[in-house]
Structure formats: structure tokens, C-alpha cells
């Protein structure tokens, strides 16, 4: 899973990225501090991995990973080449989801490019640029599709028809995700849509970058962002990027102490990852053995062969069956052999829909 971080300049994107990835890239109080995009991989915290490793101690534990792309701040006019934004938008065309960092902290020492803190205005500036950028994409794709469709090719005609549905939505100032949410596209069209890399087709998770004294996001500014997210079926996670970056520098014991002293149960990454999973309709299953215990990310509803295909593309086609048990089975019986002896190790076929938290072995053919 890959998420792209967007937002106005100087709102805390790189601070957040650093806190999550411990990458130590520059995050200073001046707009456009980031120029080249930064890519980092963060492990997704999952307490179930700890439970599994209590019973099946492995040589290594591999949590699910979230790839983050931190790009330059986007300003008004970015889609036409203002600021640094335009060129960098291309770096987020392939991500699965957008993390939109919105400034919700008041601090006179930190420059706001528009002079005041106003999260909804800021969101609209970014949304407009993303829509204009998609509109440019749709316009050039339309020309190409129209040329190709002249040959009478069926696929080319379908692409043209799809683009003709997208164009008016964007021209009206609406994101493509509204078109998706309206349910008027069929599965074929939804699949084809991906190939265009529209930024506004992606789900958005708002990261409300809050003051140190509003860590739970109960303030007025965050509630405005929350209302906005609800309107579009998105979600908001309050994060104090500054505090998170301080937490990231500490060792485990000091971190727990600091979390307790500020009244937080966990670093924001855990909540962020959970929200991103939920928004994207993702879940995890596990593989567990002496060599490694590992979490894998799959869409809700994935069948056993599709889940196996995440491990290795060949496994999907070569899938024979899966042996599946649950975390509860493991806690109750303490080892796999006992689970098998108790008749709880289920043999599942191609149609099995993998459930969140399943522990699986896949049997595959040559
Ligand atoms: N929650 C917060 N409270 C107070 N200050 C913050 C908070 N989050 C970030 N800052 C400060 O805001 C400044 C800008 O942060 P950062 O460089 O991460 O922004 P950015 O969005 O990456 O900017 P650019 O688009 O220029 O790359 C830094 O000085 C940082 O310490
Ligand atoms: Mg930055």
C-alpha cells in the first residue's frame, strides 16, 4: 500500500513524514523546503503479530508496510506551473491513497503561505489544483482516445466513453471520487480508470496537524475538517506532527513515558494506518512459521488465491488449497499441531474469502 502526502507548503508534511519514517529529511520553517520527492517505508503496527510470535517464535517478524511519498508543497496555480507543485504531482499518480495534511495549529512563528490558519480554504486550494491537474490529464487523454477510437477498436471506444464521463465532472469542479461514489461506473470502467492515474480518483485521508494542546483533535479547526471529510466519505486523523517527530527520536521506554505524560495511548502512526486500511477497504492476514511471521495486506473480500497472489504472483494461478486457522485457535491450542489435532485447521478452496486476521498456509502446484 502506498500513500502520497499532499498539502500546502509549510503545513508539516515533511515533519510528519520524518516522524513516520525516521528518515531525517529537512523540515524547516520555510515554504518549499522539500523539492525532490522523498519516499519512505513505515511498518504498520499490529498487536496481533505480537500475539502470534508468543506462540510461534520466528527468526524474524515482518509487519505490513505503508510506503509514503512526501512531495513538495502545492500552491494555488500549481497545476499551471506555479510554485514547485506541478512537476511533483506526477509522483503521486500511482499511489493508492492521498494523505492530505491540513494545518490546524496556531503558531505565529510558523509561516502560513496564505497568512492565516483556515483549514477549509486550504483544502479547497489543494483540491482545486488536483482537479485542474486531472483536467489536463483528461484533456490530453481524450484527444488520444478520440484518435484511437476512429479505427473502430472496441477498447479505444470504451476508453473514450469513460473519459467523456470524467471530463464534465472535473470541469464542474468535482473530484473523480464523486463519480466513483455515485456508483455509475461498472467494474470494467473502474478498472480502466486506474490506468489514467487521476489524483482525484483516490481516497483521501485528512491528517489534521494539530496543536500540542489539542492532541485528540477536539478543537474547532479539526471539527471543520471532520465535517468536510464526512461530506465526501473520507476520514480525519488528528496528528501533532511536531510531537510525533519528537516521539520518533526516543527509545521505547522514554516514548511510552512521554505518550503517557501527554495523554496518548499510542503514536499517531497506528491510528493513521488503521484509518488508511479502513478507508481503502484493506485488511491483513498472516503467515506464520519458524522462519518468519508476517502480515500481508489484501482488499476485504479477497479470495484465498488472490491472497496467495500477494505473496507471489504465481501463487494465484497455481493455488491448490489453503490451510487456515484463527488467532483465537492459536491462543486456545498454543501450537499448530494441537490446532490440527483438534480439527480446527480448516482446508479451504478457491472460493474461500479470506477473513481479517486469518493465519494461512498456501499449498500451490508447479
Ligand atoms: N503541529 C505542529 N505545531 C507546531 N509547529 C509545527 C507542527 N507541525 C509542523 N510544525 C512546524 O512547521 C514547520 C514546517 O514543517 P514542514 O517542513 O514539515 O512543512 P512542509 O509541509 O513539509 O513544507 P514544504 O512544503 O515547504 O516542504 C516546521 O518548522 C515544523 O516544525
Ligand atoms: Mg516538506
Automatic annotation (TrEMBL):
InterPro entries: ATPase_YchF/OLA1 (IPR004396), Beta-grasp_dom_sf (IPR012675), G_OBG (IPR031167), GTP-bd (IPR006073), P-loop_NTPase (IPR027417), TGS (IPR004095), TGS-like (IPR012676), TGS-like_dom_sf (IPR023192)
Gene Ontology CC terms, in alphabetical order: cytoplasm
Presence of the UniProt keyword Nucleotide-binding in the record: yes
Organism domain of life: Bacteria
Gene3D superfamilies: 3.10.20.30, P-loop containing nucleotide triphosphate hydrolases, TGS-like domain
Domain (OBG-type G) ranges: 1-259
Binding site for ATP: 10-15
Family matches, as Pfam families: MMR_HSR1, YchF-GTPase_C
Protein family: Belongs to the TRAFAC class OBG-HflX-like GTPase superfamily. OBG GTPase family. YchF/OLA1 subfamily.
Function: ATPase that binds to both the 70S ribosome and the 50S ribosomal subunit in a nucleotide-independent manner.
Name this protein carries in UniProt: Ribosome-binding ATPase YchF
Gene behind this protein: ychF
